[in-house]
Design the sequence.
């Protein structure tokens, strides 16, 4: 359990950066916030994958990473939306 949480945090940093690259346009927020979005998405994505029974695989668990990335993209879009409302 602890190992999977640590892995989700490390993967979350990567997932957050990938999500930011996927979302078109300029994102005006810090790298730290990007990492937080990625880590939260990775943890939630891991929980969803576990609930769906997708975590018992050998090697790379692509379904889990796809869920994590989708959540991170949604998180980045949410941050952009919140920043736009705050600045207007």
Sequence:
């Amino acid at each position: 359990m602890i190992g999977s949480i640590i892995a989700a945090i490390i993967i979350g940093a990567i997932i957050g950066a990938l999500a930011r690259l996927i979302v078109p346009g300029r994102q005006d927020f810090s790298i730290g916030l990007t990492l937080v979005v990625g880590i939260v998405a990775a943890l939630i994505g891991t929980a969803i994958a576990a609930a769906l029974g997708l975590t018992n695989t050998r090697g790379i668990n692509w379904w889990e990473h796809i869920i994590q990335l989708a959540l991170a993209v949604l998180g980045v879009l949410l941050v952009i939306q919140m920043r736009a409302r705050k600045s207007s």
